[in-house]
Amino acid sequence: xxxxxxxxxxxxxxxxxxxxxxxxxxxxxxxxxxLSASKTxxxxxxxxxxxxxxxxxxxxxxNFSFIADTKKVLKEAQKSLDAKAKNGIxxxxxxxxxxxxxxxxxxxxxxxxxxxxxxxxxxNPWRFWLLTIGLxxxxxxxxILPKFVPLAGIKNNHIYHSSMTRGLTxxxxxxxxxxxxxxxxxxxxxxxKNNIFWPVVTLVLIxxxxxxxxxxEKQKLNNPARSASPEITGWLGIITGxxxxxxxxxxxxxxAYITPWILIADPISKAISGNPASQxxxxxxxxxIVMLVMGIRMISKYRHNKYQITRTISVIFxxxxxxxxxxxxxxxxxxxxxxxxxxxxxxxxxxxxxxxNNLMNSGGIGIFMLVWGIALALxxxxxxxxxxxxxxxxxxxxxxxxxxxTLGDPYRQLSDxxxxxxxxxxxxIHSVLAFAVVMTLMVLYTYFTxxxxxxxxxxxxxxxxxxxxxxxxFAGVIGTGFYPLMGNRTWCRFxxxxxxxxxxxQRFQSRFRITTNGSQCISCGNCSTxxxxxxxxxxxxxxxxxxxxxxxxxxxxxxxxxxxxVLRLENSSMxxxxxxxxxxxxxxxxGGITLVQ
Length: 597
Ligand code: SF4
Ligand code: SF4
Description:
The protein has about 600 residues and is mainly α.
């Protein structure tokens, strides 16, 4: 490793250590001004309970004890107001402004913890920004920049030799996935207030899909499961995966514990929108920075290929402007927070009542956003995918795809190429799409009729479970946390409902395909190795068969790493079905050599 790279790596590790340790550095003190409850009756009650329990002006050195005590106070105030509400709510006050809902408890806890911070980070957020994120960017760039010096082109870069990118043996991977899913479902019971119905239904469906895949596999005894997994597990990758999973668990479900990080993001948030940072601003900022730095790495690696350079710049542009800056600026201009490129059903909250009301109450721009969102989902997606395949979104625009292509690029070889994984993929991703459609229809039914009960199900509970399981658990915790364990497109391949929708159009009604020049293929397998969607590209290339797979995101990396120029991404004619039947290769058999066309 180059000396500059060693220094860069050292600085990055130092920045990451400070960033992680900063979670324990803050001090906390609750005061009437730091109690962030904006509704009068709620604030009065919480203050009273806090005074009685001796929490007011008490100094805490740990966020664990501060959060635990504040949570107790909030719960007690919640109970007390519930009891008072039974005797009647003051005239002119709505129930929502009087009682403390569970959602209120979460937001008051987060905002109060943040506002009660009186330690070094609250006093010097810029200093900590420089010591953590700033130093991390600098270290990361020092590590990456020397990669521009050697001759361009893909090398044998020891992906299966590095402990960071080697992946897991198939058994350990199954255990890690099983434990994470079990953990999410157990937490789901608590999340749904001890209602085990939805966690159990999910468990049954997982069992059913697993049984179906394994049963039909038995039917084809000549088709054993194959895996790209190595014989030894890469421990550095496991540690990275655990770190990422932990980050998402805290971000989605316990953001009060990461208030020191949110404080670090405060100055930037205030500079952009004038508001203090939320956990989502912190996430957006980190997401954009990570994509930018790792995007530079991506460009250094694939700089011999114009397609890779252009689409990397494209995903960075869409993330930094459409997903990060424009929504914040919209808020500053008193307009709804809106990411113009986030399309339903990936943007599953689009048809939720609060979003529809918010858009419709925001005048002309809100109505434009509403029409734009619907038109993009119903007309834009099929029409653009017809011409260009799903790559226009998955590889050029989408934030999830952008993170996978930049932060996740070192792990793309870990995608499972087995037919078993392909079967799981089809069952799971289309189930998520069906769930998203049914949930949205239920939410819309409730919106137009005011009726929450549809047959045996409550639309509110269904949407809560979808948000928990798919929106947070699958997309975040597993989707990104499992980059170093299962490859960089785990969410895009197995979970994204929009990818499923785009994939159906691509498979049956699109001009996009990857054409192969079979006679040039030397069967090196680079293409299959680097395909992040687990497509065994070589299998098609050897037979000279065009590739039209619904999962292909058109990243083009298979073509970029092919030493023989066998593969070509094309938007051509609509003869997809006949072309994929065609084999154009030399077949050498005992009987002689034949040209198969
Ligand atoms: S087949 Fe090629 S273009 Fe499609 S996802 Fe795999 S690597 Fe990317
Ligand atoms: S298509 Fe290219 S990369 Fe894939 S096996 Fe053939 S020669 Fe190797």
